[in-house]
Amino acid sequence: MTMENNINEKVLYAAVLGRVIDALEISGQLVEDSAKLLVPVDTGNLRGSITHKVYRNELIVRIGTPVEYAPYIEFGTGEHAENGQGRKGGWFYTDEKGNKHFTFGNKPQPFLRPALLNNKSRIDSIFKEIFK
């Protein structure tokens, strides 16, 4: 291999890598925006915490939230838990105002998975476009 070929390969690799990273960024923003439209809103904390991040070394994008109750919204709780593994028979809890409540749990309200699945064809198109 000549030095010129080696330089051309590096330039081509950098150009392709840059386009892939751009596509990951666009796709991540698309799914993030969609998740924010789908998430149920009470205080807005969960919606405001949804973000995406591109990991350049791994060539992946992660969309999610650090809010600890997000999985309970996405997958449900108690008898309504999506996987059927939730607590059975209900339970009592006390809210922040000191009021006592009884619940069998909450039904799932998925927002992250539908955000991805609803945009799959658009994401495919984004990646196809970078390789034209």
What are the main properties of this structure?
two-stranded antiparallel ribbon, 132 residues, 5 helices, elongated, alpha+beta, two-stranded antiparallel sheet, 48% helix, single chain
Walkthrough of the structure:
This protein has 132 residues and is α+β, with helices and mostly antiparallel strands. The protein has one domain (3-130). It is built from five helices and four strands; from the N terminus they run ααββαββαα. It has helices at 3-38, 45-49, 70-75, 112-117, 120-130, and strands at 51-55, 60-64, 91-94, 100-103. The strands form two sheets. The protein has a two-stranded antiparallel ribbon. β1 and β2 form a beta hairpin. The protein is elongated and about 75 Å long.
Give the SSE map.
Blueprint: H1 3-38, H2 45-49, E1 51-55, E2 60-64, H3 70-75, E3 91-94, E4 100-103, H4 112-117, H5 120-130
Antiparallel strand pairs: 1-2, 3-4
Helix pairs in contact: 1-5
